[in-house]
């Protein structure tokens, strides 16, 4: 599995104590089941509502499995699944005879939760993504600097909910049509900014455990993979995510002001060759470095001064596992 899926697995496990983490893991696994992955590659169109294409069927009901199986990389379905399971399991235990609880309650729970995600909540996510994509495209057409500021500040929020998958087709279409993508240039700055937040934690913390997380997370973000920094550190210490997002907004604004274009998909510092115009170096290459270094500087400085302190670690509390249907903590 990819790193993104692994991060979702860890999230599912931490949400899972409400109902039992292994049941949540099984529900999560349904998104990467081989048959589901194969459906995501299908070009079949069974039905269409707006921009949402229903390309598969589940029990005769049209469902939408996005290209690339975006559900597997989104935390929103996982959070919804945990919330649904927390309410379905007590109901199943009330209506099923106690003698068959251990066998049939988990089976019914997984079936109901997975069905609701694929049939109801999945299409809703994709409809939101489609509308979001149209909005982003329109915003870039109106003003590149303003769109850089807004997208740069909010893009990593889209990543959290898996809505960033709406952006990827836009980037692909821009590169296919024009040979370059201004949108991907903005996204690149947000990656550097998240790495800047993690770097500030690595420099400031005196805790060896946190340092051991922050160092690799910083390197990953500078290589274009932000999940370790976001899920391992920046979201955990919420102010860090905010300060890093401010850095992303500054980087996005400068990307727009310098009219930066990106000629490939690989972002962050490791993707600097993607900012080299095939016809020769131009302002995009210089603008990339200015925007990226500014995003890094702002994110690092704000996080170091305001976003994180070791005292934040002292406020962490151990989460007690509680079985559904009981109020007493489980040892």
List the helices and strands and how they pair.
Layout: H1 3-15, H2 21-29, H3 34-40, E1 47-49, E2 52-54, E3 56-58, E4 61-63, H4 76-95, H5 101-142, H6 144-161, H7 167-178, H8 182-204, H9 208-222, H10 227-234, H11 238-257, H12 283-307, H13 311-314
Antiparallel strand pairs: 1-2, 3-4
Describe the structure.
By secondary structure, the protein is mainly alpha-helical. It has 2 domains: 3-130, no CATH class; 143-314. The chain contains 13 helices and 4 strands. It has helices spanning 3-15, 21-29, 34-40, 76-95, 101-142, 144-161, 167-178, 182-204, 208-222, 227-234, 238-257, 283-307, 311-314; strands at 47-49, 52-54, 56-58, 61-63. Strands 1-2 form a two-stranded antiparallel ribbon. Strands 3-4 form a two-stranded antiparallel sheet. A hairpin with a 2-residue loop joins β1 and β2 (52-54). α2 (21-29) packs across α5 (101-142). The longest helix is centred in the middle third of the chain and has 42 residues, at 101-142. The chain starts with a helix and ends in a 17-residue tail after the last helix. Residues 1-19 and 324-331 have low confidence and may be disordered.
